[in-house]
Amino acid sequence: MAHKTSSSKSPWQDCLTQTCLDLGVQAPVFQVVSDRRGGRTAWSSRVTVHGSTISARFWYDGKNLNNAKEDAAEVALTWLNGGSSNPSSPSTTRSGW
Length: 97
Hints:
The chain is α+β, with helices and mostly antiparallel strands. It has helices at about 10-25, 65-80; strands spanning about 30-35, 40-50, 50-55. α1 runs parallel beside α2. The longest helix has 16 residues, at about 65-80. The radius of gyration is 13 Å and the shape is elongated. This is DRBM domain-containing protein.
């Protein structure tokens, strides 16, 4: 994560945005998603980047929405950098919240 700045509250999102800029592709577009689970709602995020929609790995409590976006950004960066994440395989992990 070469573009990370220590003062940012969203280093993965910042790095993803910069990587898209460096690659000359459209800026990432984040979407927050929710899932009602009993008496609570779990929150996660997706990001569309370079024509693919990539889901965060985990679900979060509502007060941690930025963590969900950070998670999605990290997965997207791994994918853009040739990692093993598969953007067409949606995450169904239910931990992390």
